[in-house]
Write a structure and sequence with these properties.
By secondary structure, the chain is mainly β. It contains 1 helix and 5 strands; from the N terminus they run βββαββ. Strands 1, 2, 3, 4 and 5 form a 5-stranded mixed β-sheet that branches. A hairpin with a 2-residue loop joins strand 4 and strand 5. The termini are far apart.
Length: 97
């Protein structure tokens, strides 16, 4: 579950189920990930507990780039919004599909 790190006084807390991915420096190995502002993905965006999120999460939680989200007990700063994710996957034999 993800929720805004700073909750608004007088409003009920909001939390949403999210898909998390921990990625290493070479990500994506096949394909590309583009951000809404046109920047290509860079692993540097994840430094210092950075996070990339989908636009739906921003609107559902009332957040924007630079805001912090809490996932479990960890907090992350939103460094970008994913616009396009064209990432190839591998089948069980390791072939790119």
């Amino acid at each position: 579950m993800a929720r805004p790190a700073e909750e608004e006084p007088g409003k009920p807390p909001i939390a949403k189920v999210v898909e998390l991915r921990a990625v290493q420096a070479g990500f994506p190995f096949y394909g590309q990930l583009t951000l809404q502002d046109g920047r290509p993905y860079s692993h540097d965006l994840l430094k210092d507990k950075g996070a990339l999120v989908r636009p739906e999460l921003l609107s559902q939680l009332g957040l924007q780039i630079g805001d912090r989200i809490t996932v479990g007990k960890a907090q992350f700063t939103i460094h970008g919004v994913i616009s396009n994710e064209l990432i190839a996957k591998a089948d069980p034999d390791g072939h790119t599909i």
